[in-house]
Amino acid sequence: MAKTLYVGNIPWSTKEADLQQFFAQYGEVIECRIITERATGRSRGYGFVEVNDDNLDDIMEKTNGAELEGRKLVVNEAKPREQ
Questions:
Q1: Percent of the chain whose pLDDT exceeds 70
Q2: Contact (CB, 8 A) for 58 and 13
Q3: What span, in angstroms and rounded, lies between the C-alpha atoms of 3 and 12?
Q4: Residue pair 34/6 in contact by the 8 Å Cβ criterion
Q5: Distance (Å, whole) CA 59 – CA 23
Q6: What is the pLDDT of residue 71?
Q7: What pLDDT, in 10s, does the model give residues 22-34?
């Protein structure tokens, strides 16, 4: 089963392929998405990485606080949207 990680403090220049490659070092990445501003297409500095549930805790432990392009990532398990 897949789980989703919230990833904050992503460098503005990071592309989804870069983020996926970074997380793939630590486990199986199913999908990766960086949230962008609708009008400009510029990164908002956060995104979501879907990973295999078996690796979730290990990936969170290894990536939370890890540096990507000079910025320390904030990684938590994503919570479902409240409606």
A1: 100
A2: no
A3: 24
A4: no
A5: 8
A6: 96
A7: 999 999 999 999 9
- Taking the CB of residue 80, how many other CB atoms lie within 10 A of it? 6
CA–CA dist 9, 11 (Å, integer): 6
Q: In sequence order, what DSSP letters do the residues of 12-26 get, joined into one string?
A: TT--HHHHHHHHHTT
The three-class DSSP label of residue 42 is coil
- 4: tokens are 């989703």
Q: What's the full length of the chain, in residues?
A: 83
pTM of the predicted protein model: 0.89
Provide the strand spans (E) within 1-83: 2-8, 29-36, 43-52, 67-68, 71-72, 74-77
Tens-digit pLDDT profile for residues 19-63: 999 999 999 999 999 999 999 999 999 999 999 888 889 999 999
Handedness of CA 51, 31, 6, 73 (dihedral sign): positive
